[in-house]
Amino acid sequence: MNILLLGDIVGPSGRKALTENLPDLIKKKKLDFVVVNGENAADSGVGITKKNVEQFFEDGVDVITTGNHVWDQMEAMDFISTEKRLLRPENLFKGSPGNGFGIFNSKNNKKVAVINLMGNIYMKKSDDVFQAAQKFIQKVQLKKNADFIVVDFHGEITSEKMAMGYLFDGKATLVVGTHTHVPTSDHRIMDKGTAYQTDIGMCGDYNSVIGMNRDNSLKKFFKDPSAIKHFPALGEATISGVMVVADDKTGLASEITPIVFGGQLESTI
Ligand SMILES: [Fe+2]
């Protein structure tokens, strides 16, 4: 079972790189299931529109996760109720529209559970993420309720993400972090067989400040009054994520490989 996770798709350049590369990647790497974080997909670099969602599915994405920017394009609040393949963080306050996890069919007809979580530290206020994860672990078990389990932990700080990886070790196929837009190089299989990387980076233009125009971002740091609202950098995007090979019998991971190519970052493939 080959599962691809791609980090936050940022703005028009991130979307373009996905559309241009994903169909080929699915064929070449024999991908059975593709998850992308789409919360920065809109033209403004925050939120996701119905049109973005439709294009991602056309490109070959199976499930879209999000995070703190999930409602920045208001229309998402409506269409998330009918589009089950678009997830919002599970630990958003009760009554939030949409779902935080689901069980989906892969391209090779396996059942893949995907959960989207959001950190509590330096993030928008939400329910306790570790309690939410614990509840999910009791509800959805590997090989009992799903063949494979994918965790996207959208969070700012590395310690919270590593602790979450440890909590899920042996209980999920993989745990990856998203949100910081900078990939870490700590990909590995943990003791009990769960693949892990603290952050899988963004699919966007790295000649930027985490995907946003760098001159304007710098002005903001200098509190220059001529700075305007952040807007995405539009140069060539790097595709950034990981591919995980998982064992059909156990649902656990046997390999995790960074998939990084195009744009500014050094290519791994
Ligand atoms: Fe985010």
Instruction: Supply the number of helical segments.
Output: 6
For the record, the CATH architecture stands as 4-Layer Sandwich
Low-confidence stretches: none
List ligands, each type once. Answer: fe (ii) ion
The chain-level mean pLDDT equals: 98
- Count of discrete domains: 1
Q: Report the span from N to C terminus.
A: 19 Å
How does the SSE layout of this entry go?
Blueprint: E1 2-6, E2 8-9, H1 11-28, E3 33-37, H2 50-59, E4 63-65, H3 76-79, E5 101-105, E6 111-118, H4 129-139, E7 148-154, H5 158-168, E8 174-178, E9 188-189, E10 195-197, E11 202-203, H6 214-221, E12 239-246, E13 253-261
Parallel strand pairs: 1-3, 2-11, 3-4, 6-7, 7-8, 8-10
Antiparallel strand pairs: 1-12, 5-6, 9-10, 12-13
Helix pairs in contact: 1-2
The protein binds fe (ii) ion (FE2).
Structure description:
With 269 residues, the chain is of the alpha/beta class. It has a single domain, classed as 4-Layer Sandwich (Purple Acid Phosphatase, chain A, domain 2), CATH 3.60.21.10. It contains 6 helices and 13 strands. The protein has helices at 11-28, 50-59, 76-79, 129-139, 158-168, 214-221; strands at 2-6, 8-9, 33-37, 63-65, 101-105, 111-118, 148-154, 174-178, 188-189, 195-197, 202-203, 239-246, 253-261. The strands form 3 sheets. It has a 6-stranded mixed sheet with strand order 5-6-7-8-10-9, with helices on one face. It has a 5-stranded mixed sheet with strand order 4-3-1-12-13. It has a two-stranded parallel sheet with strand order 2-11. The mean pLDDT is 98. The structure holds fe (ii) ion.
